[in-house]
Amino acid sequence: MRWWDIDPVLVLERTLFPDDAWSRGMFWSELAHARGPGATRHYVVAEDAEGTLLGYAGLAASGDLADVQTIAVSEAAWGHGLGSRLLTDLLRAATAFECAEVMLEVRVDNLRAQRLYERYGFQPIGVRRGYYQPGNVDALVMRLTDPANPVAPTPRTSESEPPGHV
Ligand SMILES: CC(C)(COP(=O)(O)OP(=O)(O)OC[C@H]1O[C@@H](n2cnc3c(N)ncnc32)[C@H](O)[C@@H]1OP(=O)(O)O)[C@@H](O)C(=O)NCCC(=O)NCCS
């Protein structure tokens, strides 16, 4: 993800996270730490062949711990493995940052995302009460140890190719 991706990313962000969408400034701030020798962030976009944004994801590294900051796929593209490809990319980045663990928070009512993370071997380790505001929704905290060797995901079908590239 580069600064010129932020406008289309914001459109998708506001559609997928209407209650707590990140601001333009938050994406700028994340990208400011994504380049150069001291980089602590890894952000990626997925586009179709015409260059239309289909998804994006970001990871933050701190010492030997990494956090999945965000992962999102345009609803029309759900169920084709793009979320899996984005997560695979983040885990590669966590390995490159030499992180031993990857953590994330996910809404307790977001079962689709939880299934994605479980397929990669993330395990629930706790709950943060009222983490998502407004709405006072709890967050499930999940952890993956050894991101260099995640559980191989097993899609339900293999007939359809993912619609984009990361
Ligand atoms: C969560 C999210 C990123 C998943 O993205 P996705 O592209 O649908 O993810 P995948 O396609 O890799 O996996 C979803 C399902 O498709 C299946 N699938 C994967 N590859 C497939 C393929 N090639 N063909 C058919 N189905 C496939 C998976 O098995 C999975 O099935 P399951 O839900 O029954 O386990 C997406 O739903 C999203 O953006 N949600 C809104 C934002 C959000 O909640 N983000 C997470 C915040 S913590």
UniProtKB/TrEMBL annotation:
Keywords: Acyltransferase, Cytoplasm, Ribonucleoprotein, Ribosomal protein, Transferase. The keyword NADP does not apply. It is an enzyme of class 2 (transferase). The keyword Transferase applies. Residues 1-147 form the N-acetyltransferase domain. GO terms for cellular component: ribosome. GO terms for molecular function: protein-N-terminal-alanine acetyltransferase activity. InterPro entries: AcTrfase_RimI/Ard1, Acyl_CoA_acyltransferase, GNAT_dom, YpeA/RimI_acetyltransf. PANTHER family: ACETYLTRANSFERASE (PTHR43420), ACETYLTRANSFERASE YPEA (PTHR43420:SF44). This is Ribosomal protein S18-alanine N-acetyltransferase. It comes from Streptomyces evansiae.
